[in-house]
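This protein record is not my work; I was only asked to verify it. Take the sequence as given and treat only the tokens as open to question. I have pasted the whole thing underneath without changing anything:
***
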Amino acid sequence: MPYQNEVEAVDALHQIFKDIQAEIAKVIVGQDSVVKAVLISIFSNGHCLLVGVPGLAKTLLVQTIASVLDLDFNRIQFTPDLMPSDIIGSEILGDDRHFKFVRGPIFSNIILADEINRTPPKTQAALLEAMQEKSVTAAGQTHILAKPFFVLATQNPIEQEGTYPLPEAQLDRFMFNVLLTYPSYADELNIVKKTTSNQSVQLNKIIGASEIQAFQQLVRDIPVTDNVLEYAVKLTAKTRPNSAYATETVNKYVSWGAGPRASQFLVLGAKCHAAVTGKYAPDIEDVQAVAEAILRHRIVRNYRAEAEGLTIEKLIAEIL
């Protein structure tokens, strides 16, 4: 990056973040916190899971972000009959009587895994290596994926019919689990006005692959004080029942708490949150700002919590 120092680079990231938000707002009405979370996960080199009922523009949001970022984009529609080879690719016999690997849609910068919980666990697991190792293995050969690489997945709530719950190992690969809620009356009015006319929007590309990678490196280089680091790790430890830091509520209502990956994401997310809001180092408020989306899918409630109607959000608020 052509910046004199890290302060200049953070200022540039802060400005680019605002430019991207403004561009996305041409298409997506409201959902500011959701857009912010997705962009923070991208600049932190993480993956994001968007959860909400159909019709809340989850797919449109991801497509809009892909248009604003100058990156290759592929959409995979997850269905009950989707096979792992439909995602990764497969070996075929060529004209020269030799097998050759034909790449699947996973070979792209941004993957929209649409309705990821509509496919069985075997196919969901095909994403595991790609998300963690940024590579895939087919017929004993390892193929490296393009950089940067993000999976932005959408999911309908588990309570709906025809869905398969994501395994915990797969959920843990996602940095953020972001809930989409219904728009406000004013936002819905604006949405209907925009989408029921011939009005067309021209989106500008704000940033490309090399710049995104440079900013991802910048986020990792941002200094963090010991007290913020300790706060993030203690926050994760508090979610684990019967541990030294667990609260009475956690011991009573939680079966399993968050693993070390949550601590890593809390620190990375706090660094990125600080940078995009114009700060040069994160504080405890930055950790708290990203905590709910990071911890939501890493805490498993017990039957008692479900019977008493204690939500994950209430639990996290109590821990914070």
Observations:
- The chain has a mean pLDDT of 87.
- The longest strand covers residues 150-155.
- The first helix runs from residue 6 to 24.
- The chain has two domains: 6-210, 223-319.
